[in-house]
Write a structure and sequence with these properties.
disordered N terminus, single chain, Serine Threonine Protein Phosphatase 5, Tetratricopeptide repeat, two-stranded antiparallel sheet, globular
C-alpha cells in the first residue's frame, strides 16, 4: 500500500480517448467519456487509490494537518513555532480567537471535499463495471467498500470541525449542481453511518490483504468507526453493539493486537502493524514541491512541523509546532512509560533558548516527529518524511468500546476489561505491579460508574496523547467550559504566565465548532455557525 496507494491519483478525473464515430458526431477535443475510460479492473483500483490521496494533504496555501485542531485547540498542546507571530492562524485556533477567514480551516474544508468528490466518482463508475481477471467480484465489493469508508471518513472529519455541512453524494457534472444546501449535523452523521454500514459489508479483513496492500480500509476499521461515530451521536446501544463486534471478531479473532512495546506503534517499522486499524500512508519522495499545494507531495509535513528546533540536531531539526502542555505532562501517573514516549524534553543546556522555548514551554511531541530509538532519523527531503499518521489504533478502539459499554449500561464488566487491556500493556513494559494498577486502585477512584467514566477519559488522554484526538473528545463530552474557562478551568492555571496571557475565552455554544470558511460561504451561501 505504501508504494501503490497513490499511483495515478489524477486518474479519477479521466482521460480523453478517441471516438470511433464519424467526425461530425465526435465529441469536442478534450471531452471525457467515462464509459471510454472505465474499461477494466486496473482502472477501478487506480480510481479507488486516488480516493485515499486527499487524506495525506497537509499543505496548500498554508499548512493544515488535522492535529492543528485536534491537539493545539485542546489542552494537550500549545501552538509553538518560532514566536507568537509564526503561524498566526494556528495561534488563533490555539486561543479561541479564530474567524471565518482562517486559511487553515479553508484548506482543510476543501481537501475533504476533494476526497468526497473522488469517492463519489468511484462509487458511480466502479459500481457499473463487470469483474475481470484483475478485479474479481469480491475485490470489486471491497473496492466499493473502501470508497464508502473513505467518503464516511471525510465527512466525519468535516462534521467534527464545522457541524453540519453540504451533503454531496453524487458527481457534480454541471454548474447548476454546484450550490448545495447545508445539511444538519444529524443528517451528516446519519449519512456517515449509512456509508459505514455499506463499507462493512464489502470490506475484507486485514489478514486478507497482501502485505503491499496494508493500509487500505478494512472490515475492522469500519466496525471500529461505527462504534466511534455512534458515540458521537450518543447512541450508546449501537456503539456498544459495534464495539463488541470489533472486539469479538477482530481483536479476539486475531486481526489486531496491542504491540508489546507501546513505542513500537510510532516507528517506521511499526507502520501498519498489529495495532494499526487505520493510518494515513506516506512515502519518501525527494523531489521538490516548494510553493505547490494539494497533491504535490506523498510525504508528510507533520514531521518537520513538530520536530523541535534543537541546535544539537543540526540539519534534522524542525519548526517546533505543537508543544505538549504541562497539563498533559501532569496527567500521566508516576512511572507510566507512555509519558516519555509521548513528550520529549530537550537536553538541559538547550531548554529555554530561542526557538526551542515557546511561552516558557520546551516540550515536543515524540509521536509525530519521527523519533526512533533515541534519535531523529534524517529526512530525504527538507520538509517531508515517509512517516505514517496513525488515525485509529486497537487501543483506541478498546477504549471506545469501554466507553460504550459504560454509557449504554450494557456491561460494566466489559468496560473494566477493555480499560484493563490498555493499562496492563503499559504496566508490563515496566514489570512493576505497583505501576498503573487496575481500576479502581489509583487516582482516588471508587468502584462507581462515575469514577469508571473518569478513568476511561483519563486513559484516553494518556494513551492517545499527541495523536490528535483530545479536542474532539472534549467537545463530544461537553466539558469545554470546565477545562478552558479562564477563571475556573482546570487547564489555564497549569501553564506558564506567558501562555495564560495569550489565552482567549471558551464560549459555550460557539467554541465547540469552527466557522464555515468565508470563501466557501461566498461560493455556496449557507447559515454560519453561531458567534462567527
Amino acid at each position: 500500500m505504501k508504494k501503490t496507494l497513490y499511483i495515478a491519483a489524477a486518474v479519477a478525473l479521466g482521460m480523453g480517448l478517441s471516438s470511433c464515430n464519424k467526425w461530425l458526431d465526435e465529441d469536442a477535443p478534450g471531452n471525457t467519456r467515462f464509459d471510454d475510460f472505465y474499461i477494466g479492473g486496473a482502472v477501478a483500483i487506480q480510481n479507488v487509490n486516488a480516493c485515499y490521496a486527499p487524506l495525506c494533504w497537509e499543505f496548500n496555501s498554508c499548512y493544515f494537518p488535522e492535529w492543528y485542531i485536534g491537539d493545539i485547540a485542546s489542552d494537550d498542546a500549545l501552538k509553538g513555532g518560532q514566536n507568537l507571530a509564526d503561524g498566526g492562524d494556528v495561534y488563533d485556533i490555539d486561543n479561541f480567537k479564530v474567524n471565518a477567514n482562517n486559511p487553515i480551516l479553508l484548506n482543510f474544508y476543501r481537501a475533504k471535499y476533494q476526497g468526497i468528490a473522488r469517492c463519489n466518482l468511484a462509487l458511480q463508475e466502479v459500481a457499473k463495471m463487470e469483474p475481470d481477471e484483475v478485479m474479481s467480484q469480491s475485490r470489486k465489493d471491497a473496492l466499493l467498500g473502501e470508497a464508502y469508508f473513505l467518503r464516511a471518513y471525510y465527512y466525519f472529519q468535516l462534521v467534527r470541525v464545522f457541524g453540519g455541512v453540504p451533503l454531496v453524494d453524487f458527481v457534480i457534472d454541471s454548474s447548476d449542481r454546484w450550490i448545495q444546501p447545508r445539511a444538519t449535523a444529524e443528517d451528516v452523521y446519519d449519512h456517515i453511518i449509512a456509508d459505514l454500514l455499506l463499507a462493512e459489508e464489502g470490506l475484507w479483513n486485514k489478514s486478507e490483504y497482501a502485505r503491499e496492500d496494508l493500509g487500505r480500509a478494512t472490515k475492522g476499521a469500519a466496525q471500529a468507526m461505527l462504534c466511534k461515530v455512534y458515540l458521537y451521536m450518543k447512541d450508546y446501544n449501537k456503539a456498544y453493539e459495534w464495539g463488541k463486534t470489533f472486539v469479538d471478531t477482530q481483536y479476539k479473532g486475531g486481526q489486531y493486537s496491542l504491540c508489546g512495546d507501546y513505542g513500537d506503534n510510532f516507528t517506521i517499522a511499526g507502520e501498519n502493524g498489529p495495532e494499526s486499524v487505520f493510518e494515513i500512508q506516506y512515502m519518501a519522495e525527494p523531489t521538490s514541491d516548494y510553493g505547490e499545494g494539494f497533491g504535490f507531495t506523498r510525504g508528510t509535513f507533520s514531521t518537520i512541523l513538530s520536530r523541535p528546533r534543537l541546535p544539537s540536531m543540526g540539519g534534522n531539526s524542525g519548526w517546533g509546532f505543537g508543544h505538549p502542555t504541562q497539563n498533559l505532562f501532569d496527567e500521566f501517573e508516576a512511572g507510566d512509560p507512555r509519558r516519555d514516549l509521548t513528550i520529549g524534553l530537550p537536553p538541559e543546556n538547550e531548554i529555554g533558548i530561542a526557538e526551542v522555548d515557546y511561552l516558557g514551554n520546551s516540550y515536543y511531541n515524540r509521536k509525530i516527529s519521527y523519533w526512533e530509538h533515541g534519535d531523529f532519523p534524517s529526512l530525504d527531503h527538507a520538509t517531508r518524511s515517509p512517516f505514517n499518521n496513525r488515525q485509529l489504533r486497537a487501543s483506541d478502539a478498546l477504549l471506545l468500546f469501554a466507553e460504550a459499554a459504560l454509557e449504554s449500561g450494557k456491561s460494566l464488566t466489559d468496560a473494566k476489561w477493555a480499560l484493563e487491556e490498555v493499562r496492563s500493556r503499559a504496566r508490563r513494559m515496566v514489570s512493576d505491579a505497583n505501576v498503573l494498577p487496575a481500576f479502581p486502585g489509583y487516582r482516588g477512584y471508587a468502584d462507581t460508574a462515575d469514577d469508571l467514566r473518569k478513568a476511561i477519559r483519563h486513559e484516553r488522554r494518556v494513551e492517545l496523547g499527541g495523536e490528535g484526538h483530545r479536542w474532539f473528545d472534549i467537545v463530544r463530552w461537553g466539558i469545554g467550559k470546565e477545562i478552558f474557562d479562564m477563571a475556573s478551568g482546570s487547564y489555564p492555571r497549569t501553564e506558564t504566565a506567558e501562555a495564560q496571557a495569550e489565552m482567549g475565552n471558551f464560549i459555550v455554544g460557539q467554541s465547540e465548532l469552527f466557522p464555515i470558511p468565508a470563501e466557501e460561504m461566498n461560493l455556496n451561501p449557507m447559515t454560519q455557525n453561531p458567534g462567527y
